[in-house]
Structures are given as C-alpha cells and as structure tokens.
Specification:
about 220 residues, mainly alpha, about 0% strand
Amino acid sequence: MSKRLAASGFCLLLFFVLIVLLKTVDVAAIGPEGTSVGLSHLNGAVHALFGFSPLWYKVTEILGYASFLVVAFFALAGLWQLIRRRSLRKVDSAILTLGALFVLVLAIYFLFKHVVVNWRPMIMPDGEGPEPSFPSSHTMLACTIYGAAFLLLNRYLRGSPLRLPLQLMCAVLIDVIVVGRLVSGVHWLTDILGSVFLCGFLLCLFSAVLMALEQLSSAQHGKG
C-alpha cells in the first residue's frame, strides 16, 4: 500500500511542477485572442503538427460520455445494495470508495474551471471566446472512470474469463482518449500531460484505499 501512496504523491508532485513550469517558462501569447500559454514553443509545435481534427474530437467526446455509463452502473449497484441491506454501512466499501473518488474528480473539475493555468489552443465552434484548457477535464474524467473500473474488475470478476477482456477494453479506451484528445487539437500537449498526472494520482490513491480495505476486511474475518 505504501508504494501506491508514494506513486500517488509522485504523480501529484509532477502535476504541480508542471503548473509551475507553465506559469514561469516560455510564456507567450500564442493562444486565441492573444491569450498567454506556458511552454509555448513545445505546445505550439505539437499543436501545429496535428492541427484540428473534428473526427478525433467527436470520437473522444463519445468515448468520454460513454464513461458515465460505468458511473451509472456502479451507482445503481450501490443503490440496490442499500435498498436490500437497508444500511449505508452495509454497502460494499469498494463502491462507497468509488463514489468518494467521483466526488473528488468532480471537485477538481470545477476547481480548474475557475483557476486558469492555460487557455485552449482554439475557440470551440460553439464557444464565445477563449476557454480554460488545463488540465484536460474530459481526459481526466474519462480515464479516471475507466481506470477505476479496471481496478474494480480485479475485485468483482476475479477468476472470471471476462475479467481480462474487460480490463483490456478499459486500457484501450484510456489510450484512445489520451492520444485522441491530443491529436484532436482542442488541447495543448501539457493539458493532456496534466490530466494524465492527475489521473495517476487519483487512481494510485484509489488503489491504495482498496488495498487497505481488503486488508482490514481480512483482519476482521481472521478475528471472527
């Protein structure tokens, strides 16, 4: 568990280091309407390489919204347990932990809607002006959800032939969203990196908590 907590802390450190770099290194007005962007030469070069791809933008939007089906599934599972067991304390601790993870993700999402680190490289077709782009909230939300599902499959489908195919699907979806969001052109490279660091922080923390809960449960059963 300590290694997972250390990995979580390291990812969070990388995230804050990236923010410092973006606010202090190579800041230039390369964004829409003269908005300033950190690490401008790196971000500008990568954005110029890919440009804007409506196809990849649409694909990543669909896959991102599809991740909410995972949220709905576990929410319904938790509700079903609550109704049957008539006590929140009797709902599976992993599902409650997942709920706490979603709350934390949403809090981070709304925080960076108001704390501007970088601006989008383009004004969106339905937008009225420059929008905050760091971190890529779409990438963070979707990858955290699919990553959490990947981890929970070890718990709920252990020994099942479905576990590995479903975990592979989660891994592929994460990769497609990360790469697709970058090549779509609606984010800078550092927006994607920031979301990956945040996702690493959240998932390593989630994994550490799940491990702690399993150890606690094993200890309680041992005493029983």
